RNA sequence: GGAGAGAUGGCCGAGUGGUUUAAGGCGCACGCCUGGAAAGCGUGUUUACCUGAAAGGGUAACGAGGGUUCGAAUCCCUCUCUCUCCGCCA
């Protein structure tokens, strides 16, 4: 969620940035500010009436204590009308707040000025590429054939146990999976990240705070009996560790890493995108999450990219770095790099990592702030 | 699943209808004192929104949501969570 003070004070900039998403940026911002003005007007009126009421109640208390019952009764009759208008104003205020909130929730994050214009993945900018692209010839087998041949994993067994998209890893395949997880975790820990093992299910409040709800309701597995969601990424629980918190200066930066399985319904996916392990309902992922002061966030984004590059180089994989265009970015990101690895037999680039700066978009929703220089106001983290 | 107890500020903890403007303590910050420190003394110490150039002022919040009342941390209802005991159980 974008911050209202930001929209109020930097309207032009906000519109210009949001326009990169190919949406009606001016309209959305104008509406947000209009709703804000309405809300403030109502609150002003309501606060005034409440102050009057408080004053009256205090006076009645004094009269009662002074034994002036008759005068107190007279004062009481005066409150009736006031009470009615307060009731009404409270309802209007609640309504205005909800409408404003709902509207703000529909506005995506404002892309950074470096984000290229564009609508589709073809418009993404290749920042760099490294490693040797293998020339495998026509007989090269894709991973789903190799997996079967060497008993590394089975999608058919997963179908028996659960359904399509739930792979069963076995033997060397299981060992490779475990080794990769350990490798990524260890590398992160030696770089200074703290390892966490979070729950694999979260409540609705957590899913809302990181933006999965209401946006991606249908993409998460929902355990209805207990109203819990299977996490689509470790980002959800690890980021929610800091929900409703005010951090001290000294506590920043926060650097966490965690491995979890991830669950995604992937409704609407089809074709070659879902062959083999390209896109499955349950997969393993190691997530790194950083909470930073605003002035550091973009430098840290580059730092995180370097970390991931180091991993890909160590694994000797041919990879490239993309800067996503405005049309291809996620809802809550201000700038995203995707890291892709070249799959020789499939002859295509596959996303293996995605690194985003959210600016204050997530922390505003999480109510995650820190005590900064300005003592009058706690700031959202990046 | 059943029974009981509980949820108050950064922490402990008082508070059963009206100076609660949340006592008291701990912690923290600043000042005084000191050669320096400790102790002692004094002052301050939540968050969100509104208003204001600022100083300041207003409103709301005592687990959450409703209700009673001129007035609720306090009384009533519902829910959530924690603890203790019992039952059931991979």
Structure, briefly:
The protein is an alpha+beta fold. Helices cover 43% and strands 19% of the residues.
- Name the helix and strand elements from N-terminus to C-terminus, one letter apiece: HHHHEHEHEHEEHEEHEEEHEEEHEE
User: Mean of residue pLDDT?
Assistant: 91
The helix content is 40-55%
User: Number of folding domains?
Assistant: 2
Low-confidence stretches: none
CATH top level assignment of the largest domain: Alpha Beta
Assign an overall shape: elongated
Instruction: List the total number of helices.
Output: 11
Q: Strands of the biggest beta sheet: in what spatial order? A: 1-11-12-13
Quick one: biggest sheet? 4 strands, antiparallel
What is the terminal-to-terminal distance? 12 Å
CATH architecture of the largest domain: 2-Layer Sandwich
Radius of gyration: 27 Å
Counting DSSP E segments of at least 2 residues, the number of strands comes to 15
How much strand?
15-25%
CATH topology of the largest domain: BirA Bifunctional Protein, domain 2
Q: What structural category do the secondary elements indicate?
A: alpha+beta
């Amino acid at each position: 969620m974008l911050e209202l003070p930001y929209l109020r004070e930097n309207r032009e900039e906000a519109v210009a940035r949001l326009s990169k998403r190919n949406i009606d940026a001016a309209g959305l911002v104008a509406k947000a500010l209009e709703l804000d003005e309405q809300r403030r007007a109502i609150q002003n009126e309501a606060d005034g009436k409440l102050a009057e009421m408080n004053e009256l109640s205090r006076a009645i208390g004094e009269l009662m204590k002074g034994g002036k019952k008759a005068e107190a009764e007279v004062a009481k009759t005066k409150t009736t009308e006031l009470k009615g208008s307060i009731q009404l104003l409270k309802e209007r205020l609640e309504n205005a707040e909800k409408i404003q909130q709902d509207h703000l929730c529909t506005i995506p994050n404002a892309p950074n000025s470096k984000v290229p214009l564009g609508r589709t993945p073809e418009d993404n900018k290749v920042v760099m590429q490294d490693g040797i692209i293998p020339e495998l010839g026509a007989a090269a087998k894709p991973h789903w054939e190799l997996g079967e041949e060497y008993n590394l994993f089975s999608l058919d067994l997963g179908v028996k146990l659960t359904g399509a998209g739930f792979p069963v890893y076995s033997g060397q395949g299981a060992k490779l999976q475990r080794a990769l997880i350990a490798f990524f975790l260890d590398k992160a820990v030696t770089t200074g990240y703290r390892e966490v093992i979070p729950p694999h299910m979260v409540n609705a409040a957590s899913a809302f705070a990181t933006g999965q709800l209401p946006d991606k309701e249908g993409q998460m597995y929902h355990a209805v009996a207990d109203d819990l969601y299977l996490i689509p990424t470790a980002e959800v629980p690890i980021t929610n560790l800091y929900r409703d918190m005010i951090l001290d200066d000294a506590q920043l930066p926060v650097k966490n890493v965690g491995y979890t399985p991830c669950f995604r319904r992937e409704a609407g996916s089809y074709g070659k995108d879902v062959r083999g392990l390209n896109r499955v309902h349950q997969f393993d992922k190691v997530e790194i999450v950083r909470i930073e002061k605003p002035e550091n966030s973009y430098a840290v984004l580059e730092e995180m990219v370097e970390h991931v590059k180091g991993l890909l180089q160590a694994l000797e994989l041919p990879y490239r770095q993309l800067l996503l265009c405005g049309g291809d970015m996620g809802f809550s990101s201000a700038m995203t790099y995707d890291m892709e690895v070249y799959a020789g037999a499939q002859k295509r680039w596959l996303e293996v990592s995605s690194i985003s700066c959210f600016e204050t978009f997530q922390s505003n929703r999480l109510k995650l702030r820190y005590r900064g220089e300005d003592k009058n106001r706690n700031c959202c983290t990046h």
